[in-house]
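Hi, here's the filled form for the chain we discussed.

Project: internal
Contact: R.S.
Residues: 379
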Amino acid sequence: MKTKRTHSVAAVVLAVLALAVTAGCAGLQGPARSAAPIEIRDGRVVGYLPAEALPDSMVLLPPPPAPDSAAFAHDEEVSRAARTLQGTARWSLAARDADLQSPEAPGAFSCALGIPITEAGTPHLFRLMWRCVADAALATRSVKEHYRRVRPFVVNGAPICTPEAKAHLSGNGSYPSGHTTIGWIWTLVLAEIAPERANAILSRGLAYGENRIVCNVHWLSDVQAGLVMGAAVAARLHADPAFRADLEAARAEIAALRSQGVKPTGDCRSETAALALKPQPLGGILVVRGGEKVTYRCEGGAQITAVYYHFADESLRFVRLRMPDGREFTLPQGLSASGARYTDEAEWVWWIKGESARLETRRPDGEWRSMYDACSVRQ
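And the returned structure, exactly as it came back:
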């Protein structure tokens, strides 16, 4: 018989870790209302999404680069450059980012957010972030198990920043990066909660993924695939009412703390210095460009705002949409015969061609229907 229990966040970190492994991956006063405890079912943390609602990594991701391909040669080049950071402050930061066993793991984004992320001070946000870990782990499981890509340290024989994890990682698929998927979901959620800190949060999220390369446990293409899956899961989460409720509670929580002048307790200056250590050719690869805002007026007068982004190496393009009702979500670009198609392959598709666009949503019967049609760029 299935068991259903609830626990505090700190008490269930090991359950989150157990899920991530099987899938491959004080005193501050916030709002008076306390966050609900996290649910454990059959020894695992329950995320927001049922299995059938998770983005399909086998559909969204191409195969990893073949060993004799130019893409894999580039992976090796980036790996060699990143290994020069062994023993530096960036290496130490990569080791801290890798530790998902710690209840303090979400605090990696405290400096970027400008608010300390803790179970005591930000219970709603803390709970939301840990539940997202469960969704990320399950969304990447199938493709990890399918390809079982060999990790960099197995190929190059060089040290990793978390030697205690070497035995487990040796037999665990490298593609895509589960840590990067988790970190990018956290990034997009935090950038939505605190748009005034978006640049700092996005930069930290990219560095979180880069640190998997610095740690010598992932290839560049693993990290890029993790960013795609992170964006897909984050987009799908926005269709879940429980996630949206927790998101709004976390937003109020952060606003209250910011009004009190609460600041991170960690050494943000040292973190900034560590993140500045970025050798070529790693430097500049995972850099977000774009950010141009386009406003569309659709049939019936509805207005949608789209902000388009891409990485410097053109490995990923994505769009941030703001709906007429104020909801926001991020969609990665997918394949299309003509025009551009941004989709989570589960709930939303944003089509653009020239200055025209439309938004489609999936019905309960699985068929796609237009939600906002005949959208055109507002001059």
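Let me know if anything looks off before we file it.
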